[in-house]
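User: Show me a protein chain along with its predicted structure.
Assistant: Here is one chain, sequence first, then structure tokens.
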Amino acid sequence: MKLGEGWHKRNFLAEVIIPSLFTKRQGRKLKPVFPELAAGQIALTWIGHASFLIQTPEHSILVDPNWAKWLKVVKRIRQPGLEIRDLPAIDLVLVTHAHFDHLDRKTLRAVATDQPVIVPEHVGGLVSGLGFHHVQELRCWEAFEFGSLKITLTPARHWGARILHDNHRGFGGFHVEYAGRSVFHCGDSAYFDGFKEIGERLPVEIALLPIGAYDAPTKRDVHMNPEQALKAFVALNARTMIPMHFGTFRLSYEPLHEPPQRLMECAEALHLADRVCFLQEGEPKVF
């Protein structure tokens, strides 16, 4: 739902965003109804955290799928918006980096049905043997063509270690291009000048940008805050921003309601509110 479509900022916060962060999903999940897409349409479904389903008239693509209930000692607060069994047939899987909240091997094994998986360089060993027929590693700015899809790995300001001293692994975001439409999934990143370069080199229509986990216990500058996410959105010269990476796992000290609230307040001040689109988990949105 876009903020500029008749919703007052306070009503949206009070009635939609904040209650959704504190209401745990209970009982049977509703089975999503995935749309029949016409030429020129794409659909996005937020599964939760950084997990998305991107659909074109020809493809269903999973990005950073994660149905884990725990990240080691961190418990999932919001359950996934749909069950794995209710997914459409998945043609391609993308994993932005090796961190446990983005690369969950149990989930990947569950969604693997002999399709390709694309990962940054030196991450392929973590997804081999899980049921994918092809593991494609990419370096920054390298592209992989899959039929009418073009997938490009973009730079980020983050790190790729799976364990403490595992610093050789690549990381980044993914730019997905199909029939003149484009979706950019940022992965994880602090703000950096590279967003401007990404926007100059690749057309970005819809930007999936993280807005949470910025008040980290380690104080490392590796995640954007909401204001920086909007700055990245402007630098990318994107048309629509979809916030992600908030409200699912408590990965840092900021209150759960703070990221969307700060984002909305900044978007209002910058006159960008009508270009921000919050998705509800499990509900497909056609663009």
